[in-house]
Give the backbone structure.
Amino acid sequence: MTGLINVPKWETPRCSLKRRPMFDFSPEQSRWGLAISAFLSATILPGNSEIVLFAVLAKLPNLFWESIIVATIGNTLGGMTSYAIGRIFPNKVEGRALTWLKRYGEWMLLLSWVPLIGDALCVAAGWLRINAWLGLLMMAIGKCARYLVLAFGWTWFAANWFA
């Protein structure tokens, strides 16, 4: 009970996301939803893998490491899809992402997680025919580091705010 009005506990500002009906999903559904969202987020299609990751961690905190792995794999596969798209087209155009990749090579793919330029970097890497295996490794490292920071930040935030 909050104040003079009967309000369910989950509707109060400092609440537990575990009680919201919107977040009612199984571990299996959470894995697939996170993988699909992470894949779409790494392509030019819209997808908010961060929001899905936060929802999974709020509902199923025991899937912490598994969620990071699933999100990293999904996002890396999406990045490699953009890389493959870049390999299809002949390279006749110059751009900022191409200039950076020519200068720094595969190391630039560590930044493939950055919104907007990350997609361009992946396409440009394919376009420049950068080594696919090394590109995959760099993308995976960058994307994993991002999800680690997000997941640890979210769990800290949730523990201090929603407790």
